UniProtKB/TrEMBL annotation:
<dbReference type="Pfam" id="PF22594">
    <property type="entry name" value="GTP-eEF1A_C"/>
</dbReference>
<dbReference type="GO" id="GO:0005525">
    <property type="term" value="F:GTP binding"/>
</dbReference>
<dbReference type="InterPro" id="IPR027417">
    <property type="entry name" value="P-loop_NTPase"/>
</dbReference>
<dbReference type="InterPro" id="IPR054696">
    <property type="entry name" value="GTP-eEF1A_C"/>
</dbReference>
<dbReference type="GO" id="GO:0006790">
    <property type="term" value="P:sulfur compound metabolic process"/>
</dbReference>
<dbReference type="Pfam" id="PF00009">
    <property type="entry name" value="GTP_EFTU"/>
</dbReference>
<dbReference type="InterPro" id="IPR044138">
    <property type="entry name" value="CysN_II"/>
</dbReference>
<dbReference type="GO" id="GO:0004781">
    <property type="term" value="F:sulfate adenylyltransferase (ATP) activity"/>
</dbReference>
<keyword id="KW-0808">Transferase</keyword>
<keyword id="KW-0342">GTP-binding</keyword>
<protein>
    <recommendedName>
        <fullName>sulfate adenylyltransferase</fullName>
        <ecNumber>2.7.7.4</ecNumber>
    </recommendedName>
</protein>
<keyword id="KW-0547">Nucleotide-binding</keyword>
<dbReference type="InterPro" id="IPR011779">
    <property type="entry name" value="SO4_adenylTrfase_lsu"/>
</dbReference>
<dbReference type="InterPro" id="IPR009001">
    <property type="entry name" value="Transl_elong_EF1A/Init_IF2_C"/>
</dbReference>
<dbReference type="InterPro" id="IPR009000">
    <property type="entry name" value="Transl_B-barrel_sf"/>
</dbReference>
<dbReference type="InterPro" id="IPR044139">
    <property type="entry name" value="CysN_NoDQ_III"/>
</dbReference>
<dbReference type="InterPro" id="IPR041757">
    <property type="entry name" value="CysN_GTP-bd"/>
</dbReference>
Length: 577
């Protein structure tokens, strides 16, 4: 290309790029029961919106011809002729559109979707990211993962089979995950002769069900994904349908700006310190907007400061909004690190250690309320335990069934106790800070996905103490504390000597050899828990968890004798170290 042509083409290319970047983005989840035609619908949508490359189309044509020939058991010579003809074919009826999304060999062999597949297309009005989610009951957890970030959902129903239990399950999960808009697509209308009565019967049943789940908008479409009816073009085979096309509905949905309008939340991912004159907090703005000069607080410490500068890869900015990846420089040298969160002073998040949540269980092993798990929420990870399962959702009737556990793909309401507070918002108010995952502490497998509902509803709850710290202090005459002794070879003998001294002074005391859980339990019960541990990780865990649990904390100096330690521990509280 000569210089003159380049000068003409460059502005046009830049204009197209600018137009594309300015189009509103819609995240779409396509859900439904197994074999309802989700992959075929998405493949047809991609094909008719020019969202595919020529080599993809050619490869699917060859695979479609091969699959058709195998079904009819053609001789090898005729099969070869069929593949050759398919390579130059232009008739879209020869395409198996499901092959554009079912990329795994197991998916193609079985004709089902197993894992979530993401596909991308762009129209003149907007960009769309489509999540093709599996419909089989076994892969409900994959479906929940694919739908967790969606702005809208499309739920398919086979016109021959009607509304199935898995259809109801997926609709409920979609509502649980906060998807506001739902399209009910009655697919395979060609197999029932495009009967209006069949469409209206199925559509009415599912729409009535969906409305009980709280969707903001529900729309019905009679569709044949294999023939292309009412997907991007109105079909002459359904003249009675006046609801437009599926693509038209997707383009008409309001742009989802909820994160921008939500309170400012900035989970810290990393602290950048390239030299002594620069200290920035790197991360992604989870919601809201922050500007240079805004007063913010660092949580959980509560320290207040102001935003001095906002740095990005492209240079400094005056403000940053939701999903922007930035580095915030603060006017004061406050202590902040990964897991902390920045928020505006007048709109703080909740800091919850005891909370209620909805939970989708992913684990092959059922939820065990006697085990400890890890909860990861934004950039913060905290040890946690499920106090109890409040109920399990029976998806056939949407009833709440009493249950002591949750099995694979179950959904229920749980009560959770975290060792460190989660800095969060209710999920319905903020999907970014209200969501968390549950990790098996032993295997590090992700075993659940949760949505914060809010603080635990009752402080007088089964399994929790009904005795307050003030009552224990009044009865025992002391405030419980963890006392960490120096890690020396004679630590055990010195701990027992200190225990004797404190007991002689009338204190309630017990020695614990390096058991974090027992030490914290004793301290919460109002005792002095004397701990000695050589492992640095145990000492660090004790220090952090005693702080999070709100118990007293002492770390003794090796230079002093047990008698001196005892005098310090029984001195007035302001002398504590």
């Amino acid at each position: 290309m000569d210089t003159a042509l380049q000068a003409v083409a460059q502005p046009d290319i830049q204009r197209l790029l600018d137009e594309h970047s300015n189009r509103a983005l819609l995240r779409l989840a396509v859900v439904g029961s197994v074999d309802d035609g989700k992959s075929t619908l998405i493949g047809r949508l991609l094909f008719e919106c020019d969202g595919l490359f020529e080599d993809q189309i050619s490869a699917v044509r060859r695979a479609s011809a091969k699959r058709a020939a195998a079904r009819t058991e053609l001789p090898p010579e005729l099969l070869a002729q069929g593949l050759k003809a398919a390579a130059g074919a232009g008739d879209e009826e020869e395409l198996d559109f499901s092959l554009f999304t079912d990329g795994l060999r197991a998916e193609r062999e079985q004709g089902i979707t197993i894992d979530v597949a993401y596909r991308y297309l762009s129209t003149t009005l907007r960009k769309i990211i489509i999540a093709d989610t599996p419909g089989h009951l076994q892969y409900t957890r994959n479906m929940a993962t694919g739908a967790s970030t969606a702005d809208a959902g499309v739920i398919l129903v086979d016109a021959r089979l009607g509304v199935l239990p898995q259809t109801r399950r997926h609709a409920y999960i979609a509502s649980l995950l906060g998807i506001p808009y739902l399209a009910v697509v009655v697919n395979k209308m060609d197999l029932v002769g495009y009967e209006r009565a069949t469409f209206e019967r199925i559509g009415s049943e599912l729409v009535d069900f969906a409305r009980t789940l709280g969707f903001e908008g529900v729309r019905l479409f009679p569709v044949s994904a294999s023939r292309g009816d009412n997907i991007t073009r109105l079909s002459p085979r359904t003249p009675w349908h006046e609801g437009g096309t599926l693509l038209g509905w997707l383009e008409s949905l309001p742009h989802q700006r909820r994160l921008d309008g939500a309170p400012f939340r900035f989970p810290v991912q990393y602290v950048l310190r390239p030299h002594q004159d620069y200290r920035g907090l790197a991360g992604q703005v989870a919601s809201g907007t922050v500007r240079v000069g805004d007063e913010v607080q660092v949580l959980p410490s509560g320290r207040r400061t102001r935003v001095e500068a906002i740095d990005t890869f492209d240079g400094a900015k005056e403000e940053a909004s939701a999903t922007d990846s930035v580095t915030l420089l603060l006017t004061d040298d406050v202590d902040a690190s990964r897991g902390d969160l920045l928020a505006h002073v007048d709109q703080p998040p909740l800091a919850l250690q005891h909370l209620d949540a909805m939970l989708v269980w992913f684990g092959e092993q059922p939820l065990d309320v006697t085990r400890r798990y890890l909860v990861k929420q934004t950039t913060r990870t905290a040890p946690a335990q499920f106090e109890r399962v409040l109920w399990r959702k029976e998806l056939e009737t949407l009833s709440e069934v009493p249950s002591e556990s949750l099995a694979l793909n179950d959904i229920g309401r749980v009560r959770l106790v975290c060792r460190r507070p989660l800095l969060c918002d209710p999920y319905q108010e903020n999907r970014r800070t209200g969501a968390f995952i549950v990790i098996d502490a032993l295997t590090h497998d992700t075993v659940g996905a949760g949505m914060v509902l809010g603080p635990a509803e009752s402080t007088s709850r089964a399994g929790a103490s009904l005795v307050t710290s003030a009552e224990r202090h009044g009865r025992l005459g002391q405030v419980g504390a963890v006392v960490l002794l120096p890690a020396t070879p004679e630590a055990a003998s010195r701990a027992f000597a200190l225990e004797r001294e404190l007991f002689n002074l009338g204190r309630h005391v017990a020695t614990v050899p390096g058991d974090v859980e027992v030490a914290l339990a004793l301290a919460r019960a109002g005792l002095f828990a004397l701990v000695y541990a050589e492992a640095p990780q145990v000492r660090r865990a004790l220090r952090e968890e005693a702080h999070d649990a709100g118990t007293g904390w002492w770390e003794l100096d090796d230079a002093e004798a047990p008698e001196q330690w005892a005098r310090r521990l029984t001195a007035p509280r302001e002398d504590a170290t």
